[in-house]
Amino acid sequence: MPQPPAQQRLHAVLDLLRQQIAQQPDGACRQPRFDTQLFRTSGTRLADYLRELEGNISQLSAADNDVARRQWLAEKVVDQIAALQRECQSQQLRVQRERPRIDPRQHKLDEYQGYEQRLLTMIAQREQHLARAETLSIQQQLMREVDQLQERLARCRAAIYKLGLQFTAR
Known about the structure:
about 0% strand; elongated; single chain
């Protein structure tokens, strides 16, 4: 059964809001972003508020004969959508201390992954030079460098794995 045009528009707005939130740095904030009458969620991430909004939309979509409740819920959904859209648009205007905190482990993981990519590039370069090396001494030097880089890469990957375990333990 096709959805009524109003529900289609609502789901289109919700999809757009999901995309906007996915593009935001969605760290936890020190204080709730919205009034407790607008959102009841205890989280401070945009994704937490989006989940509550999605729950309200599903309640609204459910067949309910209580017209007053449906009207109240529809108004609340509209207010929540507007608030989340404003929040997404105003992220760059916030002073640094009010912006969402980025998890330091995520920052460290990004840093280690950058190291990993640079090490892989360096290894590939040394192996190319090794294939073209003409003298034994240059070949031996390049082989030592490749071995050292492989060891550094192994340590880097171990650190990435360890950080990955910390993320899953949360």
